[in-house]
Write a structure and sequence with these properties.
The protein is mainly alpha-helical and 208 residues long. It folds into two domains: 3-63, no CATH class; 81-191, no CATH class. The chain is 62% helix and 0% strand. The chain has twelve helices and no strands. It has helices at residues 3-17, 24-30, 32-41, 51-57, 60-63, 81-90, 104-123, 126-146, 148-151, 157-170, 177-188, 200-205. Helix 1 (3-17) runs antiparallel to helix 3 (32-41) and helix 7 (104-123) packs antiparallel against helix 8 (126-146). It is globular and about 55 Å long. The chain starts with a helix and ends with a helix.
């Protein structure tokens, strides 16, 4: 058994059983061989099973059914540089995807790295949150330059960081974290008046 076989098996099983929701316990009961493979081979860089990697690979219609068994509502803040370095080391040479993601593969890697940092931040690692915000800022700057829907955020960096922090805290289930972030900024930005950009002639007139 390999990872693709596990994904195909679970897609087939979910399609046939049609549960209202599923989690790790459901997989353990209904697909023990898959669960054993996941437990041994689908691991996070800093320890524990990487359920996000699994659910992200499932058919999109099944991703919405995932319900994690445990969510830390009020994690104790801590700083662990080792956890952060484990992620950075694994994806060394791939961090350029936060600056420019040229295709599906780049966007997928960006999501995988981003979600890994999101989970660490949700666990309370302040250094992971800081590293993640620094990386995502490059992506948002690119969005602002390329998408009119997000251009309204130019000059509103403090409010934008508040939205970003809220997305990190609220993100619970699977799918693209960056799609979720983009849509959140798009909707929240509708109430922001576009920043006025004066023409060169208008600017010069002020000094005459």
């Amino acid at each position: 058994m390999d990872f693709q076989t596990v994904v195909a098996t679970l897609n087939d099983l979910l399609g046939r059983r049609q549960p209202d929701c599923f989690n790790s316990s459901w997989i353990r009961r209904n697909a023990p061989p898959c669960y054993r493979f996941i437990q041994r081979n689908v691991r996070r860089e800093y320890g524990g099973i990487d359920w996000d990697r699994l659910t992200y690979a499932l058919d999109r219609r099944f991703q919405r059914w995932w319900r994690p068994t445990r969510i830390k509502k009020n994690p104790i803040p801590y700083e662990d540089r080792g956890e952060v370095e484990a992620i950075l080391t694994k994806y060394q040479g791939r961090l350029h995807v936060f600056i420019t993601a040229s295709g599906i593969d780049d966007r997928r890697i960006r999501d995988i790295i981003g979600i890994t940092f999101v989970r660490l931040a949700q666990n309370g690692n302040l250094l992971a949150r800081r590293e993640l915000i620094g990386l995502i800022t490059f992506t948002i700057d690119d969005w602002i330059e390329r998408h009119d829907a997000l251009a309204r955020w130019r000059g509103h960096e403090e409010e934008m960081l508040t939205q970003l922090d809220a997305c990190i805290r609220r993100y619970r289930y699977t799918g693209s974290f960056f799609t979720y972030l983009f849509r959140t900024l798009e909707y929240a930005g509708r109430g922001i008046a576009p920043q006025r950009v004066d023409s060169i002639e208008t600017s010069l007139a002020r000094f005459e």
